[in-house]
Amino acid sequence: MVELKIGQEVEMEYGGKAKILGIIGSGGQGVVYLVEYNGMQWALKWYDVDKIKKPKEFRENIRNNIRDGAPSNKFLWPKYLTKENSEGTFGYLMELKPDSFDSFVDILNTYKLSVDPLTGKAAKKTVRFTSLYAMVTAVINIVNAFRQLHRSGKSYQDLNDGGFFINVDTGAILVCDCDNIAPEGSNFGIGGKPGYMAPEIVRGIAKPDVQTDKYSLAVVLFKLLFRGDPMEGEKVVKDVCLTESSELKHYGQDALFVYDPNDDSNRPVRGIHDNVIKFWRLYPDYIKDAFIRSFTVGLTDPNKRIIENEWQKLFIRLRSEIIQCGCGRTNFTSMYEMPDEKTYKCPKCGMQFATLGLSNQEFRMPLYLGCKFFECEIDPESDDFLSVAGELVENKLRPGILGIKNCSDKTWRVKMPDGIFYEIGPGKGFPIWQGLEINFGKVTAKI
After folding, report:
1. Can you tell me whether residue 111 is helix, strand or coil?
2. How far apart (Å, rounded) are the C-alpha atoms in residues 437 and 146?
3. 125 φ/ψ sector (left φ>0, alpha ψ -120 to 50, else beta)
4. How many CB atoms lie within 10 A of CB 217?
5. Are 398 and 375 in contact (CB under 8 A)?
6. 111-115 vs 164-166, strand pairing mode
7. DSSP secondary structure string for all residues of 66-97
8. C-alpha distances in Å from residue 433, one per residue of 112, 352, 411
9. In angstroms, rounded to a whole number, what is the distance separating the alpha carbons of residues 97 and 78?
10. Are 3 and 31 in contact, with CB atoms under 8 Å apart?
């Protein structure tokens, strides 16, 4: 590989030169440099072409991706190609990761190493989601990014924990390493990372495609939510050293989900897989059932793997079922008591929460100070899960009196205590009361 030096300039395909300012990191395919091009700073991924099976086709695929553009702003997409040098080495420019985003690996580890520029000493810095809400939003964003990618007719092909940056405060995500993305049916020799590859790829009987992406996506989601490997239980622990043949066995030929309802021989081991044991208990059954389906029938039949749209709906529901109690307890409704079918009760302090039933949902949404609902939840034709449509707020003039604020750009019709429906425009609010009815347009809601 031809390594680049600080101050060296690299010619770009359509003119100009990128100047090397420093090294950001390195990986299996090459090195990522910090560069300056056209007065702006970029990241340059510079390849070791000896590690690419089909460098000419690989380069042409990147050119095509640049031409097509990113599926959405959730991708750190290739922007400009460099010229090939005399050794045939090349690279591409992409936007830099914002400082507010941390790597998926650091989030799984719960820390990152921060190096003091003066002393050179490394110290651990905690990396954790600041709220349950942010974590579930990150999950929704990951699922949606791959829904957008697959709808464009392309697959990621090497989906693993190195493919994401996440803002732990907001749940915003950025998909990186987008150079391996290719049209469905194309492959440039990319295999994948053990533990994330679909069983058929591990066994060598299939190549990466949209269906194998769906399996890898389920693994990513499981690791983020349960902080463990879906196939690493008692059977895997007994193999002290995971050799290539044992990886083929545990992740390919004899892959067995740790919570397979029909086979308990690979259950998580206490003292080793404590996170998985703890978090599996916390999530509602419909989330656990989705992972059971993904890692049982989905192991052997790619056509039965959960599609991104279904995942998205499940996690939008999960986000709406988070309760932040005034006593400080934050958890899903599955961990709260139900005095009746329309009320949740905090098992810690006894506070009760009314619920809102929407006509397009079979479940009820808990109401608590600060809770939000989104455009996609009140408009069946909307896919917008980030724009807040309504929020439960406290009356500024009468503390303790709660109401719903219309945060959308539409006018709602709301039934008031006098029995009359009034129009509530954007930015306006109305009180919560036992007989409340809301007409959002195509969706109605009742307390």
Report:
1. strand
2. 36
3. beta
4. 25
5. no
6. unpaired
7. HHH--SSTTB----EEBPP-TTS--EEEEPPP
8. 47, 14, 20
9. 13
10. yes
Structure tokens at 274: 């404590």
Q: Which residues neighbour 228 within 8 Å (Cβ) at sequence distance 6 or greater?
A: 222, 258, 268, 273, 275, 276
The amino acid at residue 49 is V
Q: CA geometry: angle at 323 spanning 321 and 327, to 5°?
A: 170
Q: What mean pLDDT, rounded, does the chain reach? A: 94
Round to whole Å and give the CA distance between 438 and 203.
54
Question: What's the predicted TM-score (pTM) here?
Answer: 0.94
Over residues 305-321, the pLDDT tens digits come to 999 999 999 999 999 99
User: How wide is the angle at C-alpha 223 spanned by C-alphas 129 and 268, nearest 5°?
Assistant: 120
Task: Specify the range with the lowest mean pLDDT, choosing from 36-50, 62-76, 231-245, 301-315.
Answer: 231-245
Q: Give CA–CA dist 222/142, Å, rounded.
A: 12
> Per residue in 372-389, pLDDT tens?
999 999 999 999 999 999
Of 339, 332, 338, 305, the residue nearest 318 (C-alpha):
332
Using one digit for the tens of pLDDT, what is the confidence trace for 74-127?
A: 999 999 999 998 888 999 999 999 999 999 999 999 999 888 777 878 889 999
Spatial CB neighbours of 380, under 8 Å, sequence gap ≥ 6: 360, 442, 443
